[in-house]
């Protein structure tokens, strides 16, 4: 009697994504196993000004939050637009994936993804300039994320110097 | 229609890999997929899809009969919003294969028995409804369905059973009538009249003490909130008056009438409702929430009246859609918006018109239940945060002339506070008109008592400087404790040598200074609590100490309730304070002026939940240890090693047993503290009003009595374990009847 219909158990928002942490110590299989059981979420596309308090208020709607670790620029040690949210239970984290992912925090659409678990050092951006990699190469102007991407900023200052 | 046509559609997830060989598992998957997807958007008509699918399944019966039976039983239980699609399918199969029809009915009866045994009452309703619609499809003979209904209704004659039991059996019968009433009346009108008359008698004599606790509004206007059985009865009565003409339900079997009426019908086997078991958990009664009527949808199709059976059917179907698809929000939204028959009802208007709904809820805040106001606050602030906090605040300027404790200004204040938590203070100042400034929350800043030289005269000031420096210079715990010994104790004439007794000033100086240094963020504060955990434990050794630490936390962070909540949470989890201390603190005189604020109740309910989870965790550990021991004992291996292990396990079980008892005792005590405090506060108010000949119904009173109801409702499962103690110690006959009524309403929910 207790048969579930496979066609009805779709829960696509909680599936793991294609992203794999290149710095992960272990093989692909181990990483995927951790992702499938993790209570920790990576949260991206935050404004540099978004606080731990704001993150807590939003994510606490899905359950008790164990801890939040704000991502930092490796050099400046200031917030650089991402964080980790760890719940006490997987079920609460799943609800965040279903209902918070793709909605707004601080007026920005944020993205959540499973994380294999926080380890010291993972709170730092891995871009050359100290922030996140995505902020190294992006071309657009985003006032909440330091303006232009780092590469674009260099080009702009070069241009400015040349035209002067 | 070939199997290969139904490729997996993406609702946002990953596509299935296509397997190249046909294995039995895949065929089962494909059958499932075919059956589950019939009735969805398609280039062909529903009728032709059903016809085609019936043909495919008929051909598969020789090899896959059991699988098909299993799948059909499952969709009957899990896809109730597509009831009539599947009953038609079963009808077509029965017409082609009489034996299969019979086996399906038998399988459904078995499934019904299982669901009832497992307390799955909502699913059981869907199964019975499915069976009743099979009468329309000529699969089940009408007289045998009537006989089943008669057996259900006879439960109302049982003695010494909870009312919620007979409620359910009556509910099931009534809820089938929109689908099958017409057919049953055509075949067996005398029996059906007798049935309805029995039901009417039951409804007249049943007790409805529970209703006030469940109503959203305390007023009957503009929409009365009816008890769910009363509402359904009225709807069925009206349907009967309309000669069972029901126009909303999609009935695909009508198109197949010529085929179906040739089919042979089966009789349902006599079905005796399973007897009442003490651990049965029948569904609790409900009150029907009404917010809209036909005047609210001025354009387009007319909204069905509250006693029209269409209203019932639509609400059932919408609820089913949400229950089925809640995990997939895009699919769920699509399903709701593509609801069949939506053109005949103002569906879009009421699903999409959030602004109007919000406005209506705001206008009725004065009579809205406090728990519902909480939800409205949380929903609305969250909604605003996704739409740049744009709102026509001036539309609500009527709240500005009211006392701040009245529901409307209170609501706006709480919304702005929650909105600030999701953004920041200046943002809130910017988004509301200047006229709303009295409702803007305070800036969430730390209030440090020992801020500067102006506080130099305070007794704790000198030590606050010393201890602050010590912390900054990473002094050891011993050094800090030594410094704290210098703090004079306002409670004592002479300091005793150890300085060990409760010294509120010591706690004040240390904690204020520590939290001030760590005020930058949650993480900083958590880190501080962690680093100085030992000292804090020492300072809060007594109940007085625990209470005082909470007082200090409130004092320094009184403009940042969010911070207070997370700090209290941390302190419970690290056992610096216990749950009862938090409850006592929230109800203390010092916090009386904050008593009606939302953050107080969020802290209280979070505390209760932590206590409950703690008990459950240890109970689980105990169960696991018991299971392990049982497994060991079954192995029957002899030898010293085994006996040692068994001995260890038994010891562990004994320890865990003690732990469970201790945790349960703490849990019971927590509820006793909370209820006792409620009783004290409410009694005080009632007595004061009586002696002063004042009306008891002040905004504070309404808030408090509804908060008491909320504790019962939110934690009913746990509280039910302690009913005996509560009744003997607290909710006795001597209590004021206003307070006792709440307890009685709660008891009525499972009686």
From TrEMBL, chain A:
Major location (coarse): nucleus
Example of a GO cellular component annotation carried by this entry: nuclear cap binding complex
Chain intervals with Basic and acidic residues compositional bias: 133-143
Stretch forming the signal peptide: none
RRM domain: residues covered: 39-117
Gene Ontology molecular function: RNA cap binding
Keywords (A to Z) from UniProt: mRNA processing, mRNA splicing, mRNA transport, Nonsense-mediated mRNA decay, Nucleus, RNA-binding, RNA-mediated gene silencing, Translation regulation, Transport
PROSITE patterns: RRM
Record GO biological process: mRNA cis splicing, via spliceosome; mRNA transport; nuclear-transcribed mRNA catabolic process, nonsense-mediated decay; regulation of translation; regulatory ncRNA-mediated gene silencing
Compartment annotation: Nucleus
UniProt-annotated stretches for the region Disordered: 121-164
Cross-referenced PANTHER family: 20 KD NUCLEAR CAP BINDING PROTEIN (PTHR18847), NUCLEAR CAP-BINDING PROTEIN SUBUNIT 2 (PTHR18847:SF0)
Known partners and oligomeric status: Component of the nuclear cap-binding complex (CBC), a heterodimer composed of ncbp1/cbp80 and ncbp2/cbp20 that interacts with m7GpppG-capped RNA.
Reported function: Component of the cap-binding complex (CBC), which binds co-transcriptionally to the 5' cap of pre-mRNAs and is involved in various processes such as pre-mRNA splicing, translation regulation, nonsense-mediated mRNA decay, RNA-mediated gene silencing (RNAi) by microRNAs (miRNAs) and mRNA export. The CBC complex is involved in mRNA export from the nucleus, leading to the recruitment of the mRNA export machinery to the 5' end of mRNA and to mRNA export in a 5' to 3' direction through the nuclear pore.
Family, per entry: Belongs to the RRM NCBP2 family.
Official protein name in the record: Nuclear cap-binding protein subunit 2
Species name: Nothobranchius furzeri (Turquoise killifish)
TrEMBL record, chain B:
InterPro entries associated with the record: ARM-type_fold, CBP80, MIF4G-like_typ-1, MIF4G-like_typ-2, MIF4G-like_typ-3
Chain segments carrying region Disordered: 1-23
Compartments it resides in: Nucleus
Pfam families given in the database record: MIF4G, MIF4G_like, MIF4G_like_2
Keyword Translocase appears in the UniProt entry: no
Predominant location: nucleus
Ranges in a coiled coil: 608-673
GO cellular component annotations of the record: nuclear cap binding complex; nucleus
Alphabetized UniProt keyword annotations: Coiled coil, mRNA capping, mRNA processing, mRNA splicing, Nucleus
Keyword Nucleus part of the UniProt annotation: yes
GO molecular function, one term: mRNA binding
A single BP term in Gene Ontology: nuclear-transcribed mRNA catabolic process, nonsense-mediated decay
Residue ranges constituting the MIF4G domain according to the UniProt record: 28-240
Similarity comment: family membership: Belongs to the NCBP1 family.
Protein name (record): Nuclear cap binding protein subunit 1
């Amino acid at each position: 009697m207790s048969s579930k219909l496979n066609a009805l158990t779709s829960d696509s928002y909680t599936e793991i994504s294609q992203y794999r942490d290149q710095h992960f110590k272990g093989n692909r299989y181990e990483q995927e196993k951790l992702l499938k059981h993790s209570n920790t979420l990576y949260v991206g596309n935050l404004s540099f000004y978004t606080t731990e308090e704001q993150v807590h208020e939003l994510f606490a709607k899905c359950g008790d939050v164990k801890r939040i670790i704000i991502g930092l620029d490796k050099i400046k040690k200031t917030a650089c637009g991402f964080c980790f949210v760890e719940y006490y239970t997987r079920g609460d984290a799943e609800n965040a994936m279903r209902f918070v992912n793709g909605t707004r925090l601080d007026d920005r659409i944020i993205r959540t993804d499973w994380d294999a678990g926080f380890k010291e050092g993972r709170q730092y951006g891995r871009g050359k300039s100290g922030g996140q990699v995505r902020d190294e190469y992006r071309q657009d102007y985003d006032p909440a994320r330091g303006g232009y991407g780092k590469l674009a900023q260099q080009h702009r200052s070069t241009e400015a110097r040349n035209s002067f | 229609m070939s199997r290969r046509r139904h490729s997996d559609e993406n609702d946002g997830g990953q596509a299935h890999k296509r397997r190249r060989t046909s294995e039995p598992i895949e065929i089962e998957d494909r059958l499932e997929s075919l059956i589950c997807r019939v009735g969805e958007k398609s280039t062909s008509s529903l009728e032709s899809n059903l016809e085609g699918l019936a043909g495919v399944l008929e051909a598969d019966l020789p090899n896959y009969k059991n699988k098909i039976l299993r799948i059909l039983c499952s969709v009957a239980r899990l896809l109730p919003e597509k009831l009539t699609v599947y009953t038609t399918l079963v009808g077509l199969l029965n017409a082609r294969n009489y034996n299969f029809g019979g086996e399906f009915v038998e399988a459904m009866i078995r499934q019904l028995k299982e669901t009832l045994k497992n307390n799955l009452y909502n699913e059981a309703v869907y199964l019975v409804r499915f069976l009743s619609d099979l009468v329309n499809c000529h699969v089940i003979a009408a007289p045998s369905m009537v006989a089943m209904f008669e057996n259900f209704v006879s439960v109302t004659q049982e003695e010494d059973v909870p009312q919620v039991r007979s409620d359910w059996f009556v509910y099931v019968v009534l809820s089938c009538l929109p689908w099958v009433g017409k057919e049953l009346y055509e075949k067996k009108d005398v029996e059906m009249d007798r049935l309805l008359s029995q039901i009417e008698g039951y409804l007249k004599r049943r007790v409805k003490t529970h209703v006030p606790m469940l109503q959203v509004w305390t007023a009957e206007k503009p929409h009365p909130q009816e008890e769910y059985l009363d509402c359904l009865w009225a709807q069925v009565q009206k349907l009967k008056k309309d000669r069972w003409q029901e126009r909303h339900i999609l009935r695909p079997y009508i198109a197949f009438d010529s085929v179906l009426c040739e089919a042979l019908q089966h009789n349902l086997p006599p079905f005796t409702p399973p007897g009442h078991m003490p651990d049965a958990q029948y569904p609790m009664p409900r009150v029907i929430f009404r917010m809209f009527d036909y005047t609210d949808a001025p354009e387009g199709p007319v909204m069905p009246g509250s006693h029209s059976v269409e209203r019932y059917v639509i609400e059932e179907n919408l609820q089913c859609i949400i229950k089925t698809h809640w995990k997939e929000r895009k699919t769920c939204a699509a399903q709701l918006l593509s609801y069949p028959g939506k053109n005949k009802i103002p569906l879009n208007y009421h699903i999409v018109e959030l602004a109007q709904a919000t406005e209506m809820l705001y206008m009725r805040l004065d009579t809205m239940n406090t728990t519902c106001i909480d939800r409205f606050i949380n929903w609305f602030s969250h909604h605003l945060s996704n739409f740049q906090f744009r709102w026509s605040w001036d539309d609500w300027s009527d709240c500005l002339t009211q006392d701040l404790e009245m529901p409307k200004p209170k609501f706006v204040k709480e919304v702005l506070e929650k909105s600030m938590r999701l953004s920041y203070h200046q943002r809130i100042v910017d988004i509301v008109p200047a006229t709303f400034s009295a409702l803007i929350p305070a800036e969430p800043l730390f209030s440090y008592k020992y801020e500067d030289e102006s506080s130099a005269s305070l007794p704790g000031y000198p030590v606050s400087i010393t201890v602050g420096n010590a912390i900054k210079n990473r002094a050891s715990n011993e050094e800090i404790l030594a410094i704290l010994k210098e703090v004079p104790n306002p409670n004592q004439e002479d300091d005793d040598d150890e300085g060990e007794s409760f010294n509120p000033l010591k706690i004040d100086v240390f904690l204020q200074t520590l939290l001030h240094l760590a005020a930058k963020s949650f993480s900083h504060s958590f880190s501080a609590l962690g680093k100085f955990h030992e000292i804090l434990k020492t300072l809060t050794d007594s109940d007085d100490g625990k209470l005082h630490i909470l007082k200090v936390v409130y004092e320094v962070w009184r403009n940042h309730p969010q911070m207070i909540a997370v700090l209290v949470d941390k302190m419970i989890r690290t056992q610096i304070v216990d749950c009862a201390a938090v409850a006592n603190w929230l109800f203390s005189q010092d916090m009386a002026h904050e008593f009606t604020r939302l953050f107080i109740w969020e802290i209280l309910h979070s505390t209760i939940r932590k206590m409950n989870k703690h008990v459950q965790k240890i109970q689980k550990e105990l169960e696991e240890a018991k299971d392990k021991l049982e497994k060991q004992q079954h192995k029957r291996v002899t030898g010293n090693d085994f006996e040692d292990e068994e001995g260890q396990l038994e010891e562990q079980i004994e320890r865990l047993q003690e732990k469970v008892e201790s945790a349960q005792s703490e849990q019971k005590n927590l509820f006793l503290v909370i209820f006792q405090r409620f009783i004290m506060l409410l009694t005080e108010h009632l007595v004061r009003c009586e002696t002063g000949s004042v009306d008891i119904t002040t905004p504070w009173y309404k808030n408090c009595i509804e908060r008491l109801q909320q504790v019962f409702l939110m934690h009913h499962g746990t509280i039910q374990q302690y009913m005996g103690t509560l009744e003997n110690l607290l909710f006795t006959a001597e209590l004021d009847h206003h307070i006792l009524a709440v307890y009685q309403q709660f008891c009525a929910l499972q009686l």
